[in-house]
Specification:
By secondary structure, the protein is an alpha+beta fold. The chain has 6 helices and 10 strands; from the N terminus they run E-E-E-E-H-H-E-E-E-H-E-H-E-E-H-H.
Length: about 240
């Protein structure tokens, strides 16, 4: 954004004309071609998610998460009960439309309607979703809801700086790396240096167009193999 000089000779940012606080995300389902993103409900999604997460036999998908792995159903059910009533993070189940089952979850968090900033996080994709169109479309649906439907100005992604797959995913999805907050927090008894990424509202239209082109069925062959990679369309 261009800078301006005020009457004191100081640089100031541009005005944001007619800005009003944005709405908080609600419980409306988000539906795409391959994925649906719906408010997390333990009764509706608990069995599916526990079974889907059990396919991660090593527990590696939880290394950089503050919770999990969930080997005991009672512990998982307690987490799901807390997640259902939480409003920040606001949890959603990711439904694979081909199977009709919940196979992962994600959330909006650090929701700031007044400033128009929102983060996507607590992303848990079971092995059934990893590296699939379903997972990528779910991320896109949450982006589009925040940026198009609700009109947020900034969409954030954060992860442990040691989490190389998450950082690659952020780049693939069109996020811009902003730096690392050293010793930002602790989890599971260890330090977390936090890598920050974002998408601004001015960048979103081009990134959205890239997602739409990538998700087009014509971009996949009969075996579901992509013809053009997502990062070639969103970067």
């Amino acid at each position: 954004m261009p800078q301006r000089i005020n009457e004191h000779g100081q640089q100031i940012g541009p005005d944001v004309p007619a800005w009003t606080p944005r709405a908080h995300p609600d419980q409306s389902p988000l539906t795409g071609q391959y994925a649906a993103v719906v408010r997390l409900d333990p009764a509706a999604h608990g069995d599916d998610l526990f079974a889907a997460f059990a396919t991660d036999t090593s527990g590696a998908m939880w290394t950089y998460m503050p919770n999990g792995p969930f080997t005991e159903r009672a512990v998982f059910d307690a987490f799901m009960t807390e997640a259902k009533v939480s409003t920040d993070p606001l949890f959603y189940a990711i439904i694979n439309k081909a199977t009709g089952r919940a196979e992962g979850f994600a959330s909006y968090l650090r929701i700031d309607p007044a400033a128009g900033t929102i983060e996507v996080g607590f992303i848990a994709m079971s092995p059934l979703l990893q590296k699939t169109r379903v997972a990528s479309e779910a991320i896109y649906l949450m982006m589009a809801h925040a940026m198009d439907d609700l009109g947020y100005r900034r969409y954030e992604w954060k992860c442990d700086n040691l989490n190389a797959p998450s950082k690659r995913a952020a780049g693939r999805y069109g996020f811009t790396a902003e730096g690392v907050f050293r010793q930002a927090t602790m989890y599971k008894g260890r330090n977390r240096d936090m890598a920050w990424f974002s998408i601004s509202d001015s960048e979103w239209p081009a990134i959205k167009a890239g997602f739409v082109a990538w998700l087009d069925p014509a971009n996949f062959d009969a075996d579901g193999v992509q013809r053009a990679a997502l990062e070639t369309r969103t970067m």
